[in-house]
Design brief:
mainly alpha, 208 residues, 71% helix
Length: 208
């Protein structure tokens, strides 16, 4: 359990790193936002890199707790399941605008000293989501010639595209309503439905 002051430092640092990236982020500014001293920051974290790594751990743990993949329902209607997934993730990205860009930045442009560690953390996080999608796909009655690994790749490519589009939109319009972002969900589901139609024996498995 984090002390309140340490939590304040992490939350301020997450905002600073998400907004400016690792190199441009200022520990002086983080201290000011957290209403503490720079010395106390380095009491908890011996370097800027250690603070950054702690922020990524915090962001990933928070994301997994909030999205709670393990307890999401899985039915025989894959598009409906993915609709629930996309709406919940979209709401999460809107409610916590610093978390997603921080994780993306850490995985695509990490501090040189932390590159290997960031890759490991990202793989661990993705494996949890992949496990959920694997369970979902396992319920589909697939055609005999469908390669399951290829199907997983199809799902992940659509999810990555969807997340990139939503993130870009929210960055430009942070106050956007859920209704204004509905077209992203509709496009995501339509793309998946089109991809799946040639892969399953029973197209009813795709219905809402």
């Amino acid at each position: 359990m984090l002390e309140s002051k340490e939590k304040s430092i992490l939350e301020a640092a997450i905002h600073e790193f998400a907004e400016k990236g690792f190199k441009q982020a200022s520990t002086n500014h983080i201290a000011k936002m957290a209403h503490t001293s720079k010395g106390l920051i380095f009491h908890y974290y011996e370097s800027k890199e250690k603070l950054y790594e702690a922020c990524i751990h915090y962001a990933i743990d928070f994301t997994l707790k909030e999205l709670d993949y393990e307890n999401w329902p899985i039915t025989n209607r894959v598009i409906n399941d993915l609709k629930i997934y996309s709406e919940k993730e979209l709401q999460f990205m809107k409610d916590h605008p610093d978390i997603y860009p921080l994780v993306v930045e850490a995985m695509t442009n990490p501090p040189e000293k932390l590159a290997g560690r960031m890759t490991e953390l990202y793989a661990d996080m993705k494996s949890i989501g992949t496990e959920y999608f694997s369970k979902m796909v396992d319920k589909l009655d697939l055609k005999e010639d469908v390669n399951i690994n290829t199907l997983h790749a199809v799902i992940q490519s659509h999810i990555s595209y969807y997340e990139t589009q939503v993130f870009s939109y929210l960055k430009q319009y942070p106050e956007a309503s859920m209704e204004s972002m509905r077209p992203f969900i509709d496009q995501f589901l339509a793309m998946l439905s089109m991809s799946f139609r040639g892969l399953v024996k029973n197209k009813d498995d795709l219905l809402y």
